[in-house]
Amino acid sequence: MGYLDNLFSVEGKVALVTGGATGIGRMVATGLVMGGATVLLASRKGEACESVAEELNALGATGQAIGFAGDVGSDEGVKALVAAVNARTDKLHILVNNAGITWGEPLETFPHAAWQKVMNVNVGGLFTLTRDLLPLMDAASSDGDPGRVINLGSVMGTVPVAEGAYSYSASKAAVHHLTRILANEFAKRRITVNAFAPGPFQSKMTAFATGSEEKALKVGQGVPLGRIGSPDDVAAATLYLCGRGGSYITGAILPLDGGLSAHSSVGLFASSLE
User: I want to staple 7 with a disulfide (CB 3.0 to 4.6 A). Which of 54, 64, 90, 245 is the partner?
Assistant: First the structure.
């Protein structure tokens, strides 16, 4: 194994990616399969996961994908998903909590129900699934190669912007904070916990704004680096955190946002310099 392979390979590891059939979840799964991992893909639409798994297995990579149904929106759903994972492996090296939902509506009509629904999946489901998979992760973790949890946050959980998605933005801020809490608690178990905070990427959730190349280019103009994110951006960050090169990183919120979270339109003394 070469130097770079030694740092970033996930050869032989087993991963679970929730919401893995579309968008960022699929980008994560692709990177892990190409890196040599066995990737379990789960979402509410089991047939979609099976189809994506077939496509990933046709890439000719050293890894493989297995798709099946899984829902983190209820206690019963999480229990069923944990049972499905246990039926397929006795160790879990990587957990990527990507499943999530959103709700967009003007302030004046934003419903109370949108808070319960979004927080339940994006925060509650993430927490319960992670906790219930700890025995499988403990079985795969060691001092030199800890287990890895990656949670999907968002730039909208980092900067104070909602654009009508009030419960979504708040849920992602909660994911960021929960990531740090779990990183602190899981360190003694030799499990790292980090989060991605993505900016705009093409996905089903952002199709209204990035569904065509023309729209994507327009959105990219508002990003400091001048473009929206690409699948390789996600795959590379995933392999970084899940390979040996990322084994000493925990509690980090990695901004995959082209500079949005670091950008400020506030110029404290700009007017005096004109």
Answer: 245
- Cα-based torsion angle of the residue sequence 116, 117, 118, 122 in order, rounded to the nearest 10 degrees: 100
- Domain segments of the chain: what residues? 3-259
In angstroms, the CA 125 to CA 174 distance is 13
Q: Domain 3-259, CATH 3.40.50.720 — does that match? A: yes
Q: Which tens digit of pLDDT belongs to each residue from 172-199?
A: 999 999 999 999 999 999 999 999 999 9
CA–CA distance from 167 to each of 46, 130, 147, 255 (Å)? 26, 22, 30, 20
For 117-164, write each residue's pLDDT tens digit.
Answer: 999 999 999 999 999 999 999 999 999 999 999 999 999 999 998 999
Q: Please list the residues that pair with 246 across neighbouring strands.
A: none
CA–CA separation, 262 and 230 (whole Å): 19
* Nearest alpha carbon to residue 242 among 125, 129, 137, 171: 137
| Rounded-to-integer distance, Cα 66 and Cα 274, Å | 59
Task: Provide the annotated active-site residues.
Answer: 168
**Beta carbons of 150 and 95 less than 8 angstroms apart:** yes
Report the distance separating Cα 100 and Cα 97, nearest Å: 8
CB 92 within 8 A of CB 137: yes
Q: Give rounded-to-5 percent helix, strand, coil for the chain.
A: 50, 15, 35
Closest C-alpha among 126, 170, 173 to residue 151: 126
